[in-house]
Write a structure and sequence with these properties.
The chain is α+β, with helices and mostly antiparallel strands. The chain has eight helices and six strands, in the order E-H-E-E-H-H-E-H-H-H-E-H-H-E. Helix 4 runs antiparallel to helix 6.
Length: 188
């Protein structure tokens, strides 16, 4: 089954992990039906300033060091909301009633930042439900690009007992580096 591996900055991971952030805002959305599983990849803490690092470190009781560059948990995206140009523009006019109507305070983003992020494009709010934060974060290498399992069966039928073909083919499905935003993966 296709799932998503989504890259999220450490400060947002902390807000998701403590249940405050329940909408992840993105410029794109996957082409699969909801609900679907999302694995949370915590981007490198190198992206944080020293002040941000100290703040997140204190809030996560030091877990940010364990989370650095790892898959820290998963959630089910049960719905994706679409925010068009008119909707986004209405937020910038300090129409906070409208902001609250969309329940966008759950995104932990200020309306002005929301509009700046949109940059005259539509945005999508991925609703976070059934959140699970792992006791031990997973390595990126534990995940495979979508299509791995079905292709594995096809390749074994085509090249029975030839591991060299399989290993070369399987390497194409390894995830060597995190996605810029998100990518399809096989559910583990």
């Amino acid at each position: 089954m296709k799932s998503i591996l989504i890259s999220i900055h450490p400060k947002w991971c902390e807000l998701i992990a403590n249940g405050k952030k329940t909408i992840e805002v993105r410029k794109t959305k996957p082409n699969i039906e909801t609900p679907f599983k999302c694995y949370i990849y915590c981007t490198s803490v190198k992206s944080l300033t020293l002040g941000e690092y100290v703040e997140v470190h204190q809030k996560t009781c030091g877990k940010i060091d364990d989370w650095n560059g790892k898959v820290i948990g998963e959630f089910v995206c049960d719905e994706i909301d679409t925010y068009d140009d008119d909707t986004i523009h209405s937020f910038s006019n300090e129409d906070y009633c409208r902001w609250n109507d969309f329940d966008l305070n759950r995104s932990c983003i200020h309306p002005e930042d929301f509009e700046n992020y949109a940059n005259d494009k539509w945005l999508y709010g991925w609703n976070i439900s059934d959140l699970k934060i792992y006791d031990k974060p997973k390595e990126l290498g534990e995940f495979k690009k979508a299509g791995f399992k079905s292709e594995e069966v096809w390749l074994e039928a085509l090249y029975p007992n030839t591991h060299c073909h399989y290993e070369a083919w399987a390497k194409k499905f390894e995830i060597a580096r995190p996605p810029q935003s998100w990518c399809y993966v096989e559910e583990i």
